[in-house]
Amino acid sequence: MRKLLFVLGLFPAALAIGQKKANPQKIAASITEEDLKRHLTIVAGADMEGRETATEGQKKAAAYIEQHFRSLGLLPGNKDSYQMNFPVFRDSLVSSKLAVNEQPFTVNTDYQPFLQVTRPGGQYFSEVVFAGHGIVDSAWDDYAGLEVRGKAVLLLDGVPSSYTTTKKGFRSPGNFYGKYLNAVKKGAAAVLLVGPNFPRKETPALGNMYTNLYSAEQPASLYTISAGLAKSLVGEDWSGLESGGKSGKVAGKVYSTRLMLELDKQIMKLSSSNVLGYLEGTDKKDEWLIITAHYDHLGKRGNVIYYGADDDGSGTVGVLEIAEAFVKAKAAGKGPRRNILFMTVSGEEKGLWGSEYFSEHPSIPMDKATADLNIDMIGRVDTERKTPDTLNYVYVVGDDKLSTELKPLSESINKKYVNMVLDYRFNDPNDQNQIYFRSDHYNFAKKGVPVIFYYDGMLQADYHKPTDTVDKIDFPLLKKRAQLVFYTAWEMANRDNQIKRDLPIPTMTRN
């Protein structure tokens, strides 16, 4: 009896060895251009309406992905559900009033409130602090000598011609949002940012979506205002401030004036979801490999659909096909040793919401996740690549971080099966686009999970435009890249040891 038990005890290990030696090429061949195109024609079709987070189009796409996971026989990845819902909020403007020294101004004609951060209720100030352009940088601080905590702050539009910075992106010091964040850090209660093009079109009835309804501190209210309204706040000084600010730094000053801000809005409670299913492993069922892509996009603007065929319909259908390949492998007795969680997330375009929610409410133990392979845009060619000899490529991001085992593994698998050019330009810590921090793998990396991000680099041409359509997709290249991810996943799912975590977690520098 003991000898029999010993033999049976060896059986899973023997099976695992057999699986590891199995040739995955026949299985990878099941990832076809025809299947990728069939799925993508639906996912990036007009019926999905651009798949914007928390809309009917997104929910239709989620249902399609769930049905595919069910049809493959994947197990539900969130307890007994294939979807993981998370809350989304959106504001509807009811009314807004603004007055300076009892003189009323008109919404859209003179000012516009930014609904997402402007709380309902009234704010009444007896003075306004002018803080130049509101720039805070290593050699430039428009708040020097000013106390703005709990006060209303007035800021100039843009940046002066004498200001230069290497920082880019929406958080950069001279950007609209960067200025607002700096004012918040200084403790401002309200921010009035002078803007161009007043009078403007009517404020959208609905504000931007957000997930952080509850916060330890309430954010500062935010308004864009006309130059005429700014003049009413600072009087005759305005012309000098405006002209002087075009070329250089303008000194801050406190102005005594009565400012009334009143706003009423309705908070709409919506929801979105991640779609997740898993394939059970053989002898390493306590460990996981995660394969992700985001299935949301930008939705509709009026009647114009932003299809998102490459971004990230291509990654989404890649996950669908990779899942199907692993299911076929298991049916042939070659299933993975580790569990594989296939997950498509939403809210990526809004700020990596879905993957962040999963990372904070994981359905699997994150310390048992060997890696996350994230696919975001693998169906097009970077517009910088002009000649045919440069087109057999994929950008690989993050393989040099968190684990010293990732890059050698990735390169050996690529050389063995696919032989693409692995371009590492976005691994550069000085990458101005900060690509490493801009897709869903980052929320796994923050938890210490080793990650590889596959990406085509198409940040020009049709990126975030209605013209990102299925007819632009290079399906032979999409297939090849999806197969590369499959082969890499095959190795990760079947290797003896979980990938080591022996490098520090990178952090993003907040501008």
Automatic annotation (TrEMBL):
Q: Which SUPFAM superfamilies match?
A: PA domain, Zn-dependent exopeptidases
Q: Name one Pfam family in it.
A: Peptidase_M28
- The UniProt record lists the Peptidase M28 domain at 274-487
Highest taxon of source: Bacteria
Query: Which is an annotated GO molecular function term of this record?
Result: metalloexopeptidase activity
Q: Which GO terms describe its biological process?
A: proteolysis
Cross-referenced PANTHER family:
METALLOPEPTIDASE M28 FAMILY MEMBER (PTHR12147), PEPTIDASE M28 DOMAIN-CONTAINING PROTEIN (PTHR12147:SF26)
Q: What is this protein called?
A: Peptidase M28 family protein
Q: Which organism is it from?
A: Flavihumibacter petaseus NBRC 106054
